[in-house]
Amino acid sequence: MAAQPPLIYPFDDAAIAEAAAIIEAGGIVAVPTETVYGLAADARDARAVAGIYAAKGRPSFNPLIVHVADLAAAEAIATFDDDARVLAEQFWPGPLTLVLPLRADAGIASLVTAGLDTIALRVPAHRAMQALIAATGAALAAPSANASNGISPTRAEHVAVSLGVRVPLIIDDGATKAGVESTIVAGRTILRPGPVTTEMLGAVLPVAPGTTAHVSAPGQLATHYAPSKPLRLNAIRAEADEWLIGFGAVAGDDTLSAHGDLVEAAARLFDALHRADTSPPERIAVAPVPEHGVGVAINDRLRRAAHR
Ligand code: TXA
Ligand code: MG
């Protein structure tokens, strides 16, 4: 049978029931979270998880984030110390991922953690992902629903363009709110900046930016999030043959936020990169974005997008 283009169903009970049936049969489904759209499978099912890696074309040594209903479900999978519990209680449900020691009896497929003895867990705040977790009763492994090294998807259409026939069903619940992937914290180290900012984390726990040099982390690969075109940072005006993505006073062909709102800019970032990538000019330029709040996450993703 020839592969079909993905079904795109608006979020409702019937769509979730259909998605749950696919997950329970060992398949994969694209579903929105508050950060980006995820490509979900049952984290206990090694074959299903292998299906995620295959659809994304992701190197299998890169571990996935697992999404659960609540702190109790997370504690059945990983061991929490006091710091982790403080962060979970403060920021879950929400765009924070905690890297924690994996429990031996967690029942998670080893492909999820790429054989590490830690696991990345989060409790998402989005109604569609929450509904899918509830309907399946499963912990759902879900990386961003884009082909490996592509731009992360913040709309159902981005998923359809990036993965095409490799995903059977996309739950469409509009543009995602936060727009950049979750903040990842291990211990008191921020492995990936995100919507839960350093300032927000610092209000409850002394945290410091770190690196994932010790982990095979795709989000940390320099070329992750790359558009197909060259991208120039800190541009004040467009040069010939550049599509300029503006911010604040720098007006471009498009803008992340005309009035310089960083949260709005984060929500629009990947959509703007998708638009830039399909625009006529052969190169992309992006205006400077301030390095505070969620601007840290925006600049992190932009630097990776510019690296080639
Ligand atoms: O917002 C998000 O986090 C989205 C939505 C779908 O939830 N997911 C997402 O997943 O961005 P992904 O697979 O694209 O990025 C997961 C990141 C990678 O950088 C991965 O290496 C890191 O989490 N990671 C996963 N498990 C880890 C572990 N045990 N230790 C350190 N980093 C880990
Ligand atoms: Mg990703």
TrEMBL record:
The keyword Nucleotidyltransferase applies. L-threonine binds at T35, H67, R122, A142, S182. It catalyses: L-threonine + hydrogencarbonate + ATP = L-threonylcarbamoyladenylate + diphosphate + H2O. It holds the Pfam family Sua5_C. Its EC number is 2.7.7.87. PANTHER family: SUA5, THREONYLCARBAMOYL-AMP SYNTHASE. InterPro entries: DHBP_synth_RibB-like_a/b_dom, Sua5-like_dom, Sua5/YwlC_C, Sua5_C, T(6)A37_SUA5, TC-AMP_synthase_SUA5. This is Threonylcarbamoyl-AMP synthase. ATP binds at R58, N62, T118, S144, S152, R192, Y225. Required for the formation of a threonylcarbamoyl group on adenosine at position 37 (t(6)A37) in tRNAs that read codons beginning with adenine. GO terms for molecular function: ATP binding; double-stranded RNA binding; L-threonylcarbamoyladenylate synthase; tRNA binding. Keywords: ATP-binding, Cytoplasm, Nucleotide-binding, Nucleotidyltransferase, Transferase, tRNA processing. Residues 13-196 form the YrdC-like domain. The keyword Acetylation does not apply. It is found in: Cytoplasm.
